[in-house]
Amino acid sequence: MLSVKGLVESHCLSSIPSKFVCPKTPEDSMLCESDINNIIPTIDFSHLISSNPNQTSKAIQQLGLACRDWGFFMLINHGVAETLRNEVVKGSQRFFDLTEEEKKEYAGRDLLDPIRCGTSFNPSVEKNLFWRDYLKLQVHPHFHAPTNPPGFSEIIEKYCEKSRGVVEVLLKGISRSLGLEENYIDEKMNLESGSQVFVVNYYPPCPKPELAMGLPAHTDHGLLTLLMQNQIGGLQVQHNGEWVPVNPPPNSYLVNTGDQMEVLSNGRYKSVVHRAVVNKKAVRISIGTAHGPSLDTCIHPASDLITHDYPPAYRAITYKDYMFLKQSNPLDTKSCLDLIRI
């Protein structure tokens, strides 16, 4: 299947093929018009690792509120060098600039293939395709990356190691915000052998952006996703029934909670619904590192968070089985969580 980038470059498109036209609902147009960026939670990472216990305690409280009320926050002062982040973006562009034949080498076929390059999300079950090409790499517990373009693999490996360090601190803070031991999530989710997936989303300019969708409303299947992008916006999160465009400050991360965080917290922290819209003027590149349990870990609500008033809200399932459940269904808001809800 021809990539969206290849489609755009091989045709002088004034419109888009019908298979990329995504039906819209009234809810899709519920766009927040206020300057919402002033109230989107912002977490200062340096406060989470501060030697000042009062400052750390306040940051953990803010982190818990962000996970509870939004499932999403912007992260500043995270310590990942801007030069490294820029190298990852440039390397990603170089990968997608490879020929269709060169990229085909990394196509992959199965969900657990360590390197997969493709388009849309899951064309085998989708009625409508999405205006998006992607590269997905399993980078932990074992590291995999394409050898082409030269040097890209080394940049990815260094970047993923840094992002894992950031997520380790965030998960300790989230554990404490839930009233659990600091290492609870680390130990119960077996994060030493946990899954880390590096994903590059490439959204070419679209001649009819109002008809297409980069990625539809969905949730992520893991615990936390760390996202950065080039300077082109397109991410929207759902909050109080409205779609909120996100315009992050320079050199920040966008962080969202995933399905396994909702299950683990027994519904206290919600997996945030988000989507990616496209534009007609410029390429948007977003780079996410998705962090989850080890594949064989059985996910269920934390026993410490189950009470008479809060009985278990989800049935237990291994992370691997949940990933296959997600992949075998169309990308559709929280439909997979509904399948394991009690």
From TrEMBL:
**GO molecular function terms noted in the UniProt entry:** L-ascorbic acid binding; metal ion binding; oxidoreductase activity
Which stretches make up the Fe2OG dioxygenase domain? Answer: 193-293
The answer to keyword DNA-binding applying to this record is no
Q: So which domain of life are we looking at?
A: Eukaryota
Q: What exactly does this protein do?
A: Involved in the regulation of shoot development and salicylic acid (SA) homeostasis.
Q: Which family does it belong to?
A: Belongs to the iron/ascorbate-dependent oxidoreductase family.
Protein's name in the database: Protein DMR6-LIKE OXYGENASE 1-like
* Species of the source: Senna tora
